[in-house]
Specification:
Membrane topology: Peripheral membrane protein
Largest sheet: 8 strands, mixed
Structural class: alpha/beta
Bound molecules: guanosine-5'-diphosphate
Distance between the termini: 12 Å
Organism: Ponticaulis profundi
Protein name: Signal recognition particle protein
Subcellular location: Cell inner membrane; Cytoplasm
Shape: elongated
Helix content: 40-55%
Radius of gyration: 22 Å
EC number: 3.6.5.4
Order of helices and strands: HHHHHEHEHEHEHEHEHEEH
């Protein structure tokens, strides 16, 4: 996903480590190249500006330039700044599970991978955390989406709320909570309705559901391949819903991955998981250090 960015940064770093001494001018030139590389990778401009300002401040210091291996030190500074940009070393991607039934609400645009991610999370909660999971689709406008979630639940081996046609999303949420209480489920995942564009009705409905269900996690699923649109989507959802984290899907694709890099800095929300394939095991726990390492090659 970050191949092009990795190639660009590697060549900048090769230029820095290839010789012993560095001047302030060399460092400034390298910073300009890193700036262009980040922008070309689709990292949001304000994020790039902050990043470069921070790295430059540290990198032009006497201690770096006069050191025996200035290039190595600059690589380390860039690495640490990337980790920071992605949420920091101690960022905790684990899900908050309250006393049962704990609710996880999934939000996002149609086609972002929301339902698939719901299935992936159910699998993870069942197999890794040994939780009894109930899935419920609130997509009242698209019967196919409801059926899709039921099929996924079957594949994972968890239960899904029986579908009753004609119910409102808020009523389905209430029914899911009731069923979870009565039947001893640990976690209920609510797969809310998505639309193809940001739409007032979708937002209002999601807000209502959040009020009723009081989720311990409200995750926004965003398609990383949609670039700056994904960042804009996250911003807009964050204004309306009590989001607790992000899931970025299609990170297995070969597009420019920079939008994903901006997400944390722009929204302030932690990235919790990365979708890395269509299959149900295609979900990676997000770790800022690992992703920064991957970017630097
Ligand atoms: P929804 O409308 O947001 O619920 O989206 P879906 O869950 O139906 O996903 C839309 C399409 O994206 C499906 O074909 C999924 O298999 C695919 N998809 C979802 N997540 C990923 C991912 O992380 N990687 C890839 N390659 N495809 C994904």
């Amino acid at each position: 996903m970050f191949d092009a960015l990795t190639d660009r940064l590697t060549s900048v770093f090769d230029g820095l480590t290839g010789r012993g001494a560095l001047s302030e001018k060399d460092v400034s030139a390298a910073m300009r190249e890193i700036r262009v590389a980040l922008l070309e990778a689709d990292v949001a401009l304000p994020v790039v500006k902050d990043f470069i300002a921070k790295v430059k401040k540290e990198a032009v210091g006497e201690a770096v330039i006069k050191s025996i291996t200035p290039g190595q030190m600059i690589i380390k500074i860039v690495h640490d700044a990337l980790v920071e940009m992605l949420g920091g070393e101690d960022s905790d991607p684990s899900l908050r599970i309250d006393s049962p039934p704990s609710v996880i609400m999934m939000a996002g645009l149609q086609g972002s991978g929301k339902t698939t991610t719901t299935g992936k999370l159910a699998k993870r909660l069942k197999e890794k955390d040994r939780k009894k999971v109930l899935l419920a689709s609130l997509d009242t406008r698209r019967p196919a989406a409801m059926d899709q979630l039921a099929v996924l639940a079957g594949q994972v081996g968890v239960e899904s709320l029986p579908i009753i046609k004609g119910q409102l999303a808020t009523d389905i949420a209430k029914r899911a909570l009731q069923a979870a209480k009565l039947q001893g489920f640990d976690v209920v995942i609510l797969d809310t309705a998505g639309r193809t564009t940001l739409d007032e009705q979708m937002m209002a409905e999601a807000e209502e559901v959040a009020k009723i269900a009081n989720p311990s996690e409200t995750l926004l699923v965003a398609d990383a391949l949609t670039g700056q649109d994904a960042v804009e989507t996250a911003k807009r959802f964050n204004e309306r819903l009590p989001l607790t984290g992000l899931v970025l899907t299609r990170m297995d694709g070969d597009g420019r991955g920079g939008a994903a890099l901006s997400m944390r800095a722009v929204t302030g929300l932690p990235i919790k998981f990365l979708g890395v394939g269509e299959k149900l095991d295609g979900l990676d726990v997000f770790a800022a250090k690992r992703v920064a390492g991957r970017i630097l090659g």
